[in-house]
């Protein structure tokens, strides 16, 4: 306590630092208990997580209390006896404590959804406050939570009021306050300069690594790194090598380059025989993990429609999503490009007039549409799709009298499908073939949907939302089967991503497996393909099934024309990207780090193994090449 007495009035800052560190530590402990043995705790891992966590906590606490230190420096000493000044200190204490408690609660609920500290998703959500705040209000008893936090705050400040008043009224000359504040500011600057978030990246288990972090620290770090430059942060190869290997990769299915220019990525696909020109509908189902299906071992009977379709469709049980967010799925399906680190192309500037799946359909005389159950301004979907060949329809275009249910994310899936059927009927009546990309929203927190559709009540959890989404898909296909255009329509049923990407490893393969079915009972006989297929392969594989000849810039492959052994999947988080081929997973991370892991296909787990230089170069070429090509405008539509 001697230091506190010597600090005089500045002891309030020391108290604030101690309280912040205590709350950060309790938050870490709560998350550690929540994860339990999944973090693979050992003495070394525990010591590293605790020590790094304390460093991050101390750094953030020192930085956050700088404004309080500046206020105590600026307030004249003669004001220390004023009741108004003392009340100001109490209010500031209550406000600061409430902010810390609110942050801790926010981290707990964020972990519920993403199994992570605050990251780039939290940064992105600042942009879409209407949806995020609405989602929180509809998912949690926010009023009771705020009242509980406010009550704790008031109780704590009331209990400490005499101590706070005693510290504030101590005589502390300006010179003394200046010395303390200067030391405080220098310490904060030094800690922020030398404390690196990369230090915790050496912890192998992903859960333990996240627990070692600090929410506010990671939030600021994510904000600073919200747009990653591949060539600055990742392992690279010479540009000429990268472009040559990228072109070679794109021609694996037998395409012919249209130019000898090494920077020209366009190539011509020629298919013998007559082309099929059916209608095509991509049904992209929000967060529909393969793990929800009985086909993949789930015993809850949540997806009877999807499970039944595996017997009547072209079924791909080894399909993997590109990423962990909707925009990654949309990017993969529309552009057939690898998930380059940082923001998805859907959200990047200069993403207009790209070569897309709609480019191919439009050239064949189709009408192309993106039909979304939510507001399409979210995640920049409206701009991206409308500038890349699609007519955009969202919830604003749906007659309110035809909406059975809606929440903050969008209308119920059945209402999305009703709107889609109206559009398809109109196109068919006009004699125009149609291509549509549908994006659902129902399988998303707060997990609400119309009553009476399934045997699980609305807003009781993920299982109900999954079962409703599956019911709505079945209802859609049943209604579509009565249409005159049904027999000449191909339905591609796929998820945008899995429901959760959390796991012990950075890229847990089991968390990327998604359903993929191509359903056209009058056009394609049922079949099962055991070949590994990436989300970016879906567009060219679909066009291959239609036997189309076209000029392409797709980086994904027609899986049916790809030489055996060349199949690979590209998976990612925001910063970590992976290249999965045969029995190896190549992982590229910021800091030019590269890891190679062996894959157990039975359990979909991985473990470190010896490096594989050719596979590493292939992975680098795909990610670096795509990043360079996008920045240089080489992925734009054909002239």
Characterize the structure shown.
It is a single chain. With 639 residues, this protein is of the alpha/beta class. α3 runs parallel beside α11, α5 packs across α8 and α14 packs across α22. The strands form five sheets. An eight-stranded mixed sheet has the order 7-6-10-3-11-12-4-13. The protein has a five-stranded antiparallel sheet with strand order 16-17-18-19-20, with helices on one face. It has a three-stranded antiparallel sheet with strand order 1-2-15, with no helix packed on it. It has two domains: 2-224, no CATH class; 239-268 and 282-631, Alkaline Phosphatase, subunit A, CATH 3.40.720.10. 46% of the residues are buried. β17 and β18 form a beta hairpin. The radius of gyration is 28 Å and the shape is globular. It is built from 22 helices and 20 strands. The model has no long low-confidence stretch (mean pLDDT 90).
Q: Which strand-content bin applies to the residues?
A: 5-15%
Counting H and I runs of at least 4 residues, what is the number of helices? Answer: 22
Number of structurally distinct domains:
2
CATH topology tier name of the largest domain = Alkaline Phosphatase, subunit A
Q: Can you give the mean pLDDT?
A: 90
Extended strand count: 20
Which regions have little confidence, pLDDT < 50, spanning 5+ residues?
Answer: none
CATH superfamily of the largest domain: Alkaline Phosphatase, subunit A
Kindly state the percentage of residues in helix.
40-55%
Distance between the termini: 75 Å
